[in-house]
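User: Hi! Is it possible to get a structure for several chains at once, not just one? Here's what I have:
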Amino acid sequence: MSTAAAKTEIQMLIDTYRQAVSAKDVDTIMSFYDESIVAFDAIQALQFVGKAAYHQHWQACMQMCPGPHMFEFQAPTITAGEDVAFAHWLAQCGGTNEQGEMQSCWMRASAGYRRINGQWRIVHEHWSAPFDPASGAALFDLKP
Amino acid sequence: MSTAAAKTEIQMLIDTYRQAVSAKDVDTIMSFYDESIVAFDAIQALQFVGKAAYHQHWQACMQMCPGPHMFEFQAPTITAGEDVAFAHWLAQCGGTNEQGEMQSCWMRASAGYRRINGQWRIVHEHWSAPFDPASGAALFDLKP
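Assistant: Yes, the chains can be modeled jointly so their relative placement is included. Here is the combined structure:
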């Protein structure tokens, strides 16, 4: 597989991942991860190790945001070899508050991929917001 | 280059990077980055694009923590192809406060690498602490 073809496949994986999160389709989201996934998510824990732990976390996240939500990505930067690839992008994430208003912020995402039996799988994921070192508060007002 | 050899080289790069940060040697730290570096650092900004911007940020970080500091890594998980690799690890980071006491917390790190002209270079880096979604406060008390 050429690295150009690999890049195209990773771009498609990121697109379908984004659509699955927008649709709150946890089963489809989980289908992109390898069993060995180690995820550094933006909230609550240092890490989620393995698919079962991350599945539970995704389900909890979807319950936390019951209304319509926003999950838009800037164009990812993809670096791909034949069987190993990684990507990073900024994402605008949001949800509806109790007044039904959409509130959103920009987050950072990085992902590591391996091609296993001909299929690209996410083996590592890192989502975060930066924080203010003076106050310790996450910075939700930053814009690209 | 075999992927086992690539893994060994990435491990060495991470070791020397850790030592350079511990020694507050910004010139050596900068030597590991490619010009195209896009860094998602734990503090202050969504991203630092390019070596000049990230250099300035590293210098500001070192001025922010003038005393002795702590920068210890758990064993990184490294996924390496021939010319593309990525790694992730947990790190214990700390510094001395105004009373001269060491205060530390656990952070998450991910990095993406490319082998360019026979040398591995960091092209992407992501450091963060997770936050509490209820309060928006970064979580500095979590332990692996």
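Residues 131 and 137 of chain A are 5 Å apart (CA to CA). The mean pLDDT of chain A is 95.

User: Great, thank you!
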